[in-house]
Amino acid sequence: MFQFILSLINRLHAKQVPAAGIGLFRILYGLVTLQEVLFLIYFNHLIFDPIPFIDVEFPTIPFFLGLWALVAFFVVIGYRYRFSLLANYLFWIVFVNFTPMQRDFDGGFDMFMTGANFFLLFMPGDRAFAIDALRHKLGTPFRPYRSYPEPRVSSLTYYLPVLICLGFLYFDSAIHKLFAEHWRNGLGSWLPSTQPYYVSALDMSFLLNQEYLVKAFGYTIIVFQFTFLFFFNRRCLRPLYLFIGIGLHLGITLSLNIYPFGLGMLSFYTLLVPFSWWRRIGRFFTAREPSLTVFYDQLCPLCNRTVLVLNHFDIFRRIDFKSAQEYAGQYSALRALSQEELLKDLYALDRENRLYAGLDTYIRILIEMRYPALLGLMLKVPGIYHLAARKYRQIADTRARVTCTEACVISTPLPDRTFYHQIFEEYAGQKPKAFARKLAKVLVAIVLLQLNSTIHYGFLYRFKWNKPESPVLAAMVKGSNELISVSQLFLGIAPHALYLHDHFAGYDRIIGITYTDAEGREHWLPFVNEQGRLLAPNWGRVHSMWANIAVTPTINETRLKKFIMKVTAFWGQKIGLPLDRTVFHLKMKKIDAPTEWVEDQLHKNFASPWFEIGTARWNNGVISIEMPDNINEL
Questions:
Q1: Is cis: bond before 553, omega within 30 of 0?
Q2: Which domain-ending residue is among 352, 377, 399?
Q3: Residue 272 exposure: Cα atoms within 13 Å on the Cβ side
Q4: Which one of 93, 187, 332, 632 is most buried, by most CB atoms within 10 A?
């Protein structure tokens, strides 16, 4: 087995492939992280305050969340790659494990995002669609901008993250699904989609009411997850796994209110796109011939920098840059210009042979690039145009007096300090056999950590073997728990027993909150609506707090009261209610979570009537909640 792993590592490492997929993966991962941080900023008082807005225990939380948002933005644009990924990794670990997010506001995908970030540290995510790629060009001796080769990287950097972060996750999840009755009945995707707390604003009942279709979906998911680990990299099967996986996680994103989980998983599928497809996608989106030709002074350092920057952001390749000294004489529209005039400004010609100069050239470049066209149109607005033209003239006249006569060396070379370069290029190039052996050992260790988690939660915990009487077995179980704590903290290896039978068994009632305004009219708090759905933006980890911790098959009265306090204080302040003069009403209604298919179950749960079970009142920052002692028997 070890020799097989060694040969696989050597074969995959020797194969060089385009870096575009990893660059796009970094962007999508960064965007998912950024939206989650913005979500935390919006709900910071609900999540981090002991009593929202009243007892603020962590006043610096918004500052650190702001820093995290900045770091996530750096990840998106690929700036200071190693620093931004390291900082982002530490933020995930600290916030997920050492704040109230750890227990009360589990996002359902936090461990997954931590593990993905760990692998991104060792991936060449700065080679494509990254500011660092531009910085590297600007930090090396200038050469013609078209002579920079397409970035190519080891195929290992595609294969390993998919194998571990998706393959192991799916296999672990599939094992847990076998113990869930509704999954065995083919209703794994159907049951959560019929529960008011779990559905999004989209009504998917037209699909849920097709019994054989939803069962086909359920069984396909189980087969897909069991086999993904072994067959995803087979060339003939890769597109099949790609499209099924995208369909699965797109369905989660659209139909359930745990969209961050769906988006996080979707981002990984950029690594599963066949390499030949990236070349075809590139040819499809890039222009067959440029729509604008720009002429620049090749002996001007600032002009060379400008060309590199503009070409880097011209992702559709619609602009062609040519040396004014070499090519201007070939175009009739430029022959009337003297050499001094030609080198004083940036000139451009479009397909209709129209000539642009100075600021107009930059405006035309932005418009032709397409995606920054709005910025180009804004520069044409009177007032803005004149200010920009004056600034351009100052820069252009200054640079005209500074030229270089040889290779236009811009600065000293920018060293590549990424872990990918140090390990996969430098170390692997110097000691290929040692590299393969050490990487194989690391992979075996990760496999053992994943097996430990799967066996512990999939079998020992489920069959109550995790509390053995034998001292030897007890020590082994304790050691297993310690390993899980470490692997979960740093690698995100955790059980993926999501939405199983033991989660929904007995889930036959839900709770909502209304309030009475000054005129005596009753309104629903913007949290749970009259159907029982959790309203946006109370999705993701706020949904998890209410639907998975506060309201469960067996309700813990202490926890329920804690979250009633948090929700009423937070939303009461958000919508401007005078807390001390507002009465909140606790509503309950009966629902069903059947393990057999029932027609129109979603709307039946929506239509179930509410009845009042208690009230909540605030007085000088203290809440008083009246509710039955036997709430689990209602």
A1: no
A2: 399
A3: 27
A4: 187
Contact, 220 vs 244, CB < 8 A?
Answer: yes
Tokens of 624: 């008083």
DSSP of 567-632:
HHHHHHHHTT--GGG-EEEEEEEE----SS--TTHHHHHHHSPEEEEEEEEEETTEEEEE--TTGG
Q: CB-hemisphere CA count at 13 Å for 459?
A: 8
The secondary structure of residue 499, as a DSSP letter, is S
CA distances from 207 to 180, 203, 204, 212, 224 (A): 22, 9, 6, 10, 20
**Residue 624: beta bridge partners?**
617
* Domain assignment present for 268: no
For position 147, what pLDDT does the model report? 57
Q: Which two tokens stand for residue 616?
A: 């909540």
Q: What's this model's pTM, rounded to 2 decimal places?
A: 0.92
How many domains does the chain contain in total?
3
**What CA–CA distance (Å, rounded) separates 269 from 228?**
13
Boundary residue ending a domain (149, 168, 202): 149
Number of H helices, E strands in the chain: 30, 11
> Does residue 453 lie in a domain region?
no
* Chain segment 368-413, per-residue pLDDT in tens: 999 999 999 999 999 999 999 998 888 877 765 555 544 444 455 5
Cβ–Cβ < 8 Å for 557, 586: no
**Domain of 50, in residue numbers:** 20-149
Residue 218 to residues 166, 180, 212, 559: CA-CA distances in angstroms? 18, 12, 10, 33
Q: What is the 3-state secondary structure (H, E, C) of 132-176?
A: HHHHHHHCCCCCCHHHCCCCEEECHHHHHHHHHHHHHHHHHHHHH
Nearest to 26 by CA among 145, 157, 154: 157
CATH number of the domain where residue 350 is located: 3.40.30.10
**SS3 letters across 425-458:** HHHHHHCHHHHHHHHHHHHHHHHHHHHHHHHHHH
The total number of residues shown for the chain amounts to 634
Q: For residue 450, give every residue at least 6 positions away whose Cβ sits within 8 Å of its Cβ, in sequence order, or none.
A: 164, 168, 172, 487, 493
Token duo for residue 364: 């035309």
Q: For residue 478, is it within any domain?
A: no
At 308-342, the pLDDT tens digits run 889 889 989 899 988 888 887 788 777 777 777 77
Task: List all residues 6 or more positions away from 575 whose beta carbon is below 8 Å from its beta carbon.
Answer: 526
- Residue 422 per-residue DSSP state: I
Residue 29 lies in a domain: yes
Please say whether the beta carbons of 56 and 40 come within 8 A. Answer: no
